[in-house]
Amino acid sequence: MADQATYLFCTRTSRDLAEKIANHYGQELGKINFQQFSDGEFEPVLDQSVRGGRVFLIGSTFPPADNLLELLLMIDAAKRASAKSITVVIPYFGLARQDRKDKPRAPIGAKLVANLLTAAGATRIMTIDLHADQIQGFFEIPVDHLYASTIFVDHIKSLNLDNLTIASPDMGGAKRAKNYAGYLSAEVVIAYKERKKANVVEEMFLIGDVKDRNVILIDDMIDTAGTLCKAAEILMKNGAKSVRAMATHAVLSGKAYENIENSQISEVIVTDTIPVKSELSSKIKVLSCAALFADVMKMVHEHKSISDKFII
Which stretches make up the Ribose-phosphate pyrophosphokinase N-terminal domain (predicted)? Predict the structure, then answer.
C-alpha cells in the first residue's frame, strides 16, 4: 500500500549522499544511536518505531568491512523492530569484482554478500551500475539495478562535443561503450589491456580510430586510475583531440588522485556513490545520483514501474 509509513536511515559513511536522497524524497533521515565500545565494536540502534512500515536503509559498502557490517546490523535491527519491508539501498556494492570463481580455491565474494544481506532480513535491494550484471542473480529477492547513464547522458549532451567517440578502457566494458555510442550516435573504440596482476596494466592496444576525435572513456568504476590514465595516453598518442572519463564509482585508491592530476585526461566525471575528495584533483567533477535514487524509491513505494528510468 502506497500510504504505508516510510522510514529512511543511513550508515555513517554514506550520510552526505543519504541526506541528499532524503531531501529529494521529501523526508528527513531517521535517527540512529550508535554505541561504540573501546575495542571498536559498535551497535546501531534505530531511535524510532518502524513497526509495520517500509524501511529504506542507505549505505555503500566500500572498505573497510565495517561499512558492510554496519549495514547488516541495521537490517537486523529493522527486522527485529517488525518493519514490514526492508529495502537496502546500496549505491556502491562492495566486493562486486569477486563475481565468479576465476582461479582455484577463490571465493565468490559478491555471492557471499548477497547471502549475508538476505539472511540479515533485506526484502529488496536497490543499487547502481554493478560491476557485473549477473550479480542480480545471486539474490532470491527483488533487485532494482539502476544505471548512471540516466545522469551521464545529459552531461555528455551539455558538453556539445563535435566528432564524439565513446571508448571502453577494456574489453569488459565494450558492451557499455557500444550502448552509449549507439544512443549518442557516436563512434566507439576499445582499449585492449593485458594484466599480470590486479591494478597493474602490462600492455594496452587500441582498437579503432580516434584521430581528431573528442573521446569519452566510460567505465563503471575508477580504482587506482591506472587503466584510465594509460588508455588516455594511448588515445592521445593516436591523435585524439581530447580525452574525458566517466565512471559511476570513484573508488580512487592508492595514487589515484595523483595519477588523474598528472594524466592527459582533461576531465573525470563521477557520481557520489562513494565520498570523493575532489579538492585533491582539479580535474574531478562530481554529479549526484541522489535524485535518481529518491525517484526510484518513491516509485517502488508506490508500486509503480521504474522502466522510464532506464536510458541505456
Answer: 8-121
How far is the C-alpha of 101 from the C-alpha of 87, rounded, in Å?
Answer: 28
The structural domains of the chain, ordered by start, are 6-147+290-309 (3.40.50.2020), 149-287 (3.40.50.2020)
Q: By the 8 A CB rule, do 264 and 247 touch?
A: no
Q: Which three cell numbers stand for residue 85?
A: 519491508
Catalytic residues, by residue number, are: 193
164 and 186 Cβ atoms separated by less than 8 Å: yes
Cell 555528455 belongs to residue:
156
Q: How far apart are CA 221 and CA 79, in angstroms?
A: 32
Long-range CB pairs of 278-286 (<8 Å, 24+ gap) are 281/257, 284/250, 284/257, 284/260, 286/250
Cis geometry, peptide bond prior to residue 64 (ω within 30 degrees of 0)? yes
Residue with cell 529529494: 24
Q: Check if the beta carbon of residue 203 is closer than 8 Å to that of residue 193.
A: yes
Beta-strand (E) ranges in the chain? 6-10, 32-36, 42-46, 54-58, 85-90, 124-128, 143-146, 164-168, 187-197, 200-207, 214-222, 242-250, 267-271, 284-287
Contact 216, 165 (CB under 8 A): yes
C-alpha distances in Å from residue 115, one per residue of 119, 140, 312: 6, 9, 29
